[in-house]
Amino acid sequence: MNPSTSLPDAKLAPQADSSVLQIFGGHRLHGHVKISGAKNSALVIMAGALLCSGDCHIRNVPLLADVEKMGQVLSALGVKVSHQGDILDINASNITTSKAPYELVTQLRASFFAIGSILARLGVAQMPLPGGCAIGARPVDLHVRGLQAMGAEVQIEHGICNAYVPNGGRLKGAKIYLDTPSVGATETLMMAATLADGETIIENAAREPEVADLANFCNAMGAKIHGAGTSVITIEGVPQLHSVDYSIIPDRIETGTFLVAGAITRSDILLSPVVPDHLIPVIAKLREIGVQIIEEAPDCLRILPAETLKATYIETLPHPGFPTDMQAPFMALLTLAEGDSIINESVFENRLRHASELNRLGADIRVKGNTAFVRGVPNLSGAPVIGTDLRASAALVLAGLAADGQTTFQGLHHLDRGYDRLDIKLQQLGAKIKRVNEVSTPGVTSNGSTPPVTIAN
Ligand SMILES: CC(=O)N[C@H]1[C@@H](OP(=O)(O)OP(=O)(O)OC[C@H]2O[C@@H](n3ccc(=O)[nH]c3=O)[C@H](O)[C@@H]2O)O[C@H](CO)[C@@H](O)[C@@H]1O
Ligand SMILES: C=C(OP(=O)(O)O)C(=O)O
After folding, report:
1. Does the keyword section mention Phosphoprotein (predicted)?
2. Are 184 and 226 in contact (CB under 8 A)?
3. Cis-peptide, bond into residue 323, ω within 30° of zero
4. Is 133 noted as a catalytic residue in this protein?
5. Cα(289)–Cα(200) distance, integer angstroms
6. Nearest-angstrom CA–CA distance, 192 and 188
7. How many CB atoms lie within 10 A of CB 309?
8. What are the tens digits of pLDDT across the range 282-296?
9. 3-class state of residue 240 by DSSP
């Protein structure tokens, strides 16, 4: 499949806090979109590169603010990081400090997972509690208990997780059962176990494709990890890892987002490269809603315009269940489906905040606890909206593409954290969307509820 267009300038847009997206909805999309490497793989693979004292040449790295921040975390640890296009070179032969910087770690989630690799390499790590999307309390108890089971002393004090291996020794293999199949805890512990003494078994491990991608990356450096992608992962510790050249998997959540973009605008678009097997619950749900999706090639999906969208029931679950990261985009889609849909968010306790913003666009959604009741409406109408987190922001942009008239979206810093130039990719598909500088109305704060006045660049 030949990409129809290539993306311009491989650098992030200027810091997005003062910019908004103006979307003129009601236009169909057409053409091909190139899917970038997976955010959640790239970030944890960067943490995994700390396990190796040789060169890590990582390909298909998405251009994201989170990747940039993670690079800064590694640099602050004394690691050599260079980024060109979608290639990242990391050399962690010399980690000069075990203390990760608070200002950076608190801006993203995956930075915390590096506690596993730093501890395995240095026997000591000081890691501030992480940031990331504000979608729940997001504790790190499973990471901590797993590291303790491997012989580390771990304490959280003043917002910092301090961990060390007593007597300057190595972590020890252990049998660890996770109460819930946490993606991050599985990854933290898998990385820690890679250089531990003996065998570690993680039971009730997360089965997300990004966990398997991290394991494949580590194995390509000489680690001995078996079973990643299943709920039992076995890791036989090795003394050290070697240089690697590795390519990250396509982002299944970005793919799902563009599938919903096609569905909500009743468009015919092609998406590649993708791994359809990573999208089974998403594709199944879209088909149930009435959307036709064709596998044009093993790595290429085509979505065709749906005649009618039908209501459905969605419950988010750990992989291979329906992904929580696709919940908000699907809520946007279901606002325009015929009938009453129910969405139950069972992974995070506070991930329905986009519902009230979608209602500004004319949706009919009520929320009770972790359940959203979505009554389909015939159309949406453009309005100013504010994104509360990454996928909530994507949902609002998608709804804006379908809404009549102009939608002004505020919250680009969320989108830029996790989508590789979403606005530009949508423009290339024919969407009427542009990034503009916001001029705040005097007396109204930038996160205030009064709609901002905007001018084009
Ligand atoms: C950077 C990254 O990869 N982020 C993804 C990762 O986040 P993250 O790794 O943070 O998500 P988890 O899988 O850990 O969280 C799942 C559930 O487990 C709970 N939990 C987690 C850890 C812990 O120590 N204790 C605990 O109770 C969480 O509060 C949550 O309710 O997986 C999520 C679930 O697919 C995705 O939404 C995020 O996009
Ligand atoms: C929740 C997400 O990201 P993070 O874990 O990085 O906050 C996400 O990607 O939807």
Report:
1. no
2. no
3. no
4. yes
5. 42
6. 6
7. 22
8. 999 999 999 999 999
9. coil
- Say if the ipTM goes beyond 0.85: yes
* Active-site choice (133, 161, 218, 300): 133
pLDDT > 70 fraction of the chain, expressed in percent and rounded: 92
Distance CA 418, CA 70 (A): 12
- For residue 217 the two structure tokens come to 């990356």
Pocket of ligand 1 (CB under 6 A): 40, 43, 109-110, 136, 138-143, 180, 182-185, 206, 324-325, 347-348
pLDDT digits (tens, 9 = 90+) for 76-130: 999 999 999 999 999 999 999 999 999 999 999 999 999 999 999 999 999 999 9
39 is in an annotated binding site: yes
Minimal-distance CA residue to ligand 2 atom 4: 132
72 — phi, psi (to 5°)? -70, -35
Residue 451 confidence (pLDDT): 35
Give me the helix-helix angle, 183-194 and 114-122, nearest 10°: 20
- What's the pTM value of the predicted model, to 2 decimals? 0.94
Q: Is 347 annotated as a binding residue?
A: yes
What would the pLDDT profile of 124-155 be if each residue is shown by its tens digit?
Answer: 999 999 988 899 989 999 999 999 999 999 99
Identity of the residue numbered 1: M
Radius of gyration of the chain (CA): 22
